[in-house]
């Protein structure tokens, strides 16, 4: 199945929630600790659910809808926290403790539910076919932390944006668009590796808060 403007199973939209505080970013690492505690357990459940889904797809070609919705909820929750904190610094609105879609939050993530998934691809896509993307995403995210930020490209760009915000009071829009483009790439790979779609993620950096083609999540 080819990637096209008409069909994108993973859709991310984001709007910079202006104005942003010049200094709140200094303490967001502390404010999101309650989320990190909950997400620690949710990601354990995510892995277990993905294992169950693997066998369900292998035998039935279907991802059980309840399991799919739960894992999508974990991705949404994680992304909202990342968007608030050091994955983007795109808003000062505290993320909700919710697995549901939150239409009023300034960023939205959606993954289209697949009616059928390939039995053959489920055996190889999450470890073999995704390897090229893992290498790219590794550059985006890095492999460690310096203080509160990631050591990868996303962390570096967010740090530059934070410094610009502190001294100028504004978030450079070009930097925001680039950061969201990198995050969009990461989330597409995450959904593919989690068996939620058979659509191979494009090697393409789609910049900005809107999905290409004008679509919304």
Fold topology:
Elements: E1 10-14, H1 28-31, H2 33-60, H3 65-84, E2 107-111, H4 121-129, H5 131-141, E3 145-146, E4 149-150, H6 153-168, H7 173-193
Description:
By secondary structure, the chain is mainly α. The protein has one domain (10-210). Helices cover 50% and strands 6% of the residues. The chain is built from seven helices and four strands. It has helices at 28-31, 33-60, 65-84, 121-129, 131-141, 153-168, 173-193; strands at residues 10-14, 107-111, 145-146, 149-150. The strands form two sheets. It has a two-stranded antiparallel ribbon. A hairpin with a 2-residue loop joins strand 3 (145-146) and strand 4. Helix 6 (153-168) runs antiparallel to helix 7. The chain is globular, with a radius of gyration of 17 Å. It starts with 9 loop residues before the first strand and ends in a 24-residue tail after the last helix. Mean pLDDT is 92; it is low at 1-5.
Please give the domain count: 1
Q: Helices and strands: which structural class?
A: mainly alpha
Strand adjacency order, main sheet:
1-2
Main beta sheet, described? 2 strands, antiparallel
The radius of gyration computed from the alpha-carbon positions, rounded to a whole number of angstroms, is 17 Å
Overall average pLDDT:
92
Work out the strand percent.
5-15%
Helix run count: 7
Assembly category: single chain
The shape, in one word, is globular
What order do the helices and strands follow? EHHHEHHEEHH
Low-confidence stretches: 1-5
Q: Write down how many β-strands occur, each being a DSSP E stretch of 2 or more residues.
A: 4
Helix fraction by DSSP (H/I, runs of at least 4): 40-55%
Compute the separation of the termini in Å.
21 Å
């Amino acid at each position: 199945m080819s990637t096209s403007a008409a069909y994108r199973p993973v859709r991310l939209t984001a709007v910079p929630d202006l104005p942003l505080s010049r200094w709140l970013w200094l303490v967001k690492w502390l404010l999101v600790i309650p989320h990190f505690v909950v997400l620690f357990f949710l990601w354990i459940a995510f892995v277990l659910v993905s294992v169950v889904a693997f066998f369900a797809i292998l035998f039935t070609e279907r991802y059980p809808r309840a399991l799919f919705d739960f894992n999508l909820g974990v991705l949404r929750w994680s992304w909202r926290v990342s968007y608030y904190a050091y994955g983007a610094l795109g808003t000062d609105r505290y993320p909700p403790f919710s697995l549901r879609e939150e239409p009023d939050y300034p960023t939205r993530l959606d993954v289209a539910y697949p009616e059928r998934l390939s039995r053959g691809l489920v055996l190889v896509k999450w470890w073999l076919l995704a390897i090229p993307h893992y290498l790219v995403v590794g550059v985006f995210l890095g492999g460690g932390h310096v203080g509160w930020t990631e050591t990868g490209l996303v962390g570096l760009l967010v740090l530059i944006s934070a410094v610009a915000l502190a001294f100028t009071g504004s978030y450079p829009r070009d930097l925001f668009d680039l950061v969201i483009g990198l995050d969009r790439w990461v989330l597409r790979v995450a959904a593919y590796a989690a068996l939620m779609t058979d659509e191979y993620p494009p090697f393409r950096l789609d910049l900005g808060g809107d999905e290409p083609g004008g679509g919304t999540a």
